[in-house]
User: Fold this.
Amino acid sequence: MLKPATVSSYLKGVTQVVGNQLNVGKQVAVLPAKQVSFTVPSPLGLSKSLPNGNVTITCALGTPSQVRWAHTDITVPDWTEYRKDSVKSPNVRSSESEESRKNFAYLMAGTLGVGSAYAAKSLVTQFVSSMSASADVLALAKIEIKLADIPEGKSVTFKWRGKPLFVRHRTQAEIQTEQNTPSSSLETLNMIASVLKTQNGCVPISNAGDFGGYYCPCHGSHYDASGRIRKGPAPLNLEVPEYSFPSDGLLIVG
Amino acid sequence: MALSSTLYNSIFKRTSTFALACVACAFFFERTFDLGVDTLFNKINEGKLWRDIKPSEEQ
Assistant:
């Protein structure tokens, strides 16, 4: 075991003994703090007292098997290479450049976040749009109607995407009546009226009901000639699908 | 210095504003990035695109 005499005060561990608080019958004497003074040896004296040369370590029962060095010979690694320029100088407070360094780190993280958000959005859009009907399916799901075949004041029923589609050629009087009826979703369209009963898949009867439009026999809902709900339990108007008039007298729904 | 401290205190300090800023930037980034990539694609494939060969194919 190594015991350099002059440095023993540096290498000693300190043990504190705390008195048992349960033993209340005895008075604990408080001793005055003892002033321990020691002289700092000169570097030469320190180097003489420290072990050098061949050091042998004994290992036996009852002897400590650990050798503690004074750690004075270990050089601290130089991290200058890894430091930012703003914290290289030991004479400059690092708090002065704190915000710019933080900003840099957050900006990097933010750029990554923006990229990830863009990638995630693209991915989700791709997957979701793959579920919708493709263009060729949509092209087949259209219906072409010659408007000249429908006489004025009559409603013709077509089957479109498995549902009934009513195309009504309204008379001028009907249009006037509808336009005079204020509504938040007033249809200004002359020809096309409506498709699809909004409840339960019941098919409304055309040219029936209190308002001269459509009447649903299942629940007794009255619609007018624009397909708006006027009376009865139906919560919504008849749905008007997407439509276009590519040429005069031709209607494409879908 | 004032700009960087304003930036840090107003955006980067709180996670909520940081995430919000990320989403807002992603919105604009998406528009510009998509537009840029499409322009690049059209430039590289100049002459092969349908809009370039359409007159000769439709005659």
Observations:
- Residues 124 and 130 of chain A are 10 Å apart (CA to CA).
- Helices of chain A lie at 8-11, 43-49, 98-131, 135-140, 172-179.
